[in-house]
């Protein structure tokens, strides 16, 4: 992304702080110094200050509130605040108990926060957090490890302890313990774009990603060809929990540990993908003897719109587990905090999952003679997913290719399980309908499921159970009439109904090959039509005509018929 909702990119950090004062009435902003602080801090309790460059939201200001930070100082994007800003923050939270300053290990932050602390009174303690396991001891010999999302867990635990009235020394000691037992590793598909700067060339090639990503666009540990999700996560977890890598084994894992885990969005990942990472992360940690007792999932320390995520693991020392978890579980008014949850590990498989596993274990497969047409049809839409998706990005909402691919893959898996039996055509058709109903979403999934379910019912009425070409033609006509009861689309409508009706009309008199050819002609012709139904009806029709692409659903169905016909030959 290189365009942003900002008239002046330089004002974004202050706009964010102003916005937080509307979200959380317990905080106020000193606009001159860009310091967000609790309005009425209890001076009988230790205060916590943090901050750094903007662009990592909700860190740091999003964590200002009860049982968390007392104040946060915001610099320019990816630039540390200056010493005078930090001094102002110290003045705003000055109290009788003392102040703990917590910063990520970046040179600018350490220098400016440290200088401000040195010039303050003796009631200020300083803690630097570096939790990035991608930076080894050799590489970080002088500068140390970078501070990443694990820093926020230090805020959470230390902030809660401060709220109980603990002394400055007690708060700092517990914060240090958390910092010593936390590690973070990130991965991304590219760097982020800094508002106010020129569009940059892509840092990574298509199909390439980076492990050990820095949150300021610093190079990571290494670039790799994108692996399977489970493999990527396993490699990241190994970096987090290894005790044999002399350069990177920072946390004293024992192989029988309990931990708090944070799955953090680096800014540009969809919620769909982020939450979808959780099962693999929990599985990988469990296999390494780490019992996850709490998990945070969401955006806690971003890198603007970086398309990636990080995993943080906080090992819980046995003698301090109870007190750390009290801090983790404590409610906070800070809007950046999502509550931690207790994850469900190794849930009981559903009956459906167990049945599928049993089928797969049995190795039953249907003879190829009957399944050839079905396999050819499924493979046709799977192979065409990119084209269908491209058409749907132009003419719809972009999901048609993936929906058809999901249906095709699920049916192929059903064939492998033995759900489709050439000796029982009726039940095989019903099985396909059930698979589509379960595994193929979207409007097209519902239309396919309705049509094929009606087809199965009609086939079941065949005299003496004999399914002939005439039976198929009659059943298809019946199924079409059933489908008409659920959709108002009629040809020509620029929908999948165009090739479906063309196929059924031709199949009754001309046979399968000719019907498939007619369906393809009808699908091709949708490129010339103004949409009267379906998602494309909401699209700019003039632009749609200029693009001149067929309806994605129609094209997918035509390929299915073509696959059947080619296999029949």
UniProtKB/TrEMBL annotation:
SMART domains per the UniProt record, alphabetical: Dak2 (SM01120)
Cellular component per GO, a single term: cytosol
Pathway: Polyol metabolism; glycerol fermentation; glycerone phosphate from glycerol (oxidative route): step 2/2
Annotated binding of substrate, by residue: 53-56, 104, 109
Catalysed conversion reaction: D-glyceraldehyde + ATP = D-glyceraldehyde 3-phosphate + ADP + H(+); dihydroxyacetone + ATP = dihydroxyacetone phosphate + ADP + H(+)
Keyword match Kinase: yes
Active site per UniProt: 216
Annotated InterPro entries: DhaK_ATP, DhaK_dom, DhaL_dom, DhaL_dom_sf, Dihydroxyacetone_Kinase
Domain (DhaL) ranges: 368-566
Gene Ontology terms describing biological process: anaerobic glycerol catabolic process
Pfam families: Dak1, Dak2
Gene3D superfamilies: 1.25.40.340, Dihydroxyacetone kinase, domain 1, Dihydroxyacetone kinase, domain 2
Keywords: ATP-binding, Glycerol metabolism, Kinase, Nucleotide-binding, Transferase
Domain DhaK: 8-337
Gene Ontology molecular functions: ATP binding; glycerone kinase activity; triokinase activity
Record function comment: Catalyzes both the phosphorylation of dihydroxyacetone and of glyceraldehyde.
Protein family: Belongs to the dihydroxyacetone kinase (DAK) family.
Full protein name: Dihydroxyacetone kinase
Organism per entry: Vanrija humicola (Yeast)
